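Hi all, posting the design record for the shared folder.

TITLE: backbone redesign
STEP: 1 of 1
STRUCTURE INPUT:
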């Protein structure tokens, strides 16, 4: 059963809740007609590349809704003043098959980890300090579902004007502020970072 983290006490007045059938409309509203980026609907890491591309848009939306409807671990929605403002995809690494075939993001070791694969903040809420509490909410969700390690694959921007789509897995500095540490870097701009969950969390 997916544990709830409702009423998470985070900075910036942000509350994070695990997405559920009851919260689907909030996520749909947040991701908008484009499904976040180019019809992705957060299926980029869940589907083989060819299938993902062929069903961009409405088919990906339906696929994500099925995942959520089945009660699978998919992520958390952040709210400010009751309005959905951000989304973080987080779940057991094996729920993201594309990660398992990636040379760049191949497993560091044989530990069981949860993975953060997407960090999305609504345009109206960007540059307002929401990303760090969003990541913290994702870690809290993982911890309440017995995760011991949360892994992330952020980018190190080459420019302050790095397109949002190029940073869909999050920014290195935000994960540092959220307590993550780098464990491996196979290329200069894409480290693998981890958060070790302590028993009291």
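Okay, here is what came back for every position:
SEQUENCE:
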């Amino acid at each position: 059963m997916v544990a709830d983290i409702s009423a998470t006490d985070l900075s910036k007045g942000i509350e994070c809740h695990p997405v559920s059938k009851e919260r689907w409309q909030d996520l749909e509203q947040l991701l908008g007609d484009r499904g976040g980026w180019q019809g992705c609907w957060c299926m980029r890491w869940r589907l083989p590349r060819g299938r993902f591309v062929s069903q961009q848009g409405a088919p990906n939306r339906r696929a994500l809704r099925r995942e959520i409807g089945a009660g699978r671990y998919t992520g958390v929605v952040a709210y400010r003043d009751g309005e959905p403002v951000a989304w973080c995809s987080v779940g057991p690494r094996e729920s993201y098959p594309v990660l398992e075939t990636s040379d760049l993001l191949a497993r560091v070791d044989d530990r069981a980890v949860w993975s953060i694969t997407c960090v999305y903040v609504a345009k109206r809420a960007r540059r307002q300090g929401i990303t760090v509490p969003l990541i913290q909410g994702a870690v809290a969700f993982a911890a309440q579902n017995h995760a011991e390690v949360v892994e992330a694959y952020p980018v190190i921007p080459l420019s302050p004007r790095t397109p949002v789509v190029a940073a869909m897995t999050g920014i290195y500095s935000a994960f540092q502020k959220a307590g993550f540490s780098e464990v491996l870097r196979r290329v200069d701009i894409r480290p693998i970072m981890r958060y070790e969950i302590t028993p009291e969390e």
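COMMENT: DSSP finds six helices and seven strands in the chain.
Let me know if anyone wants the other runs.
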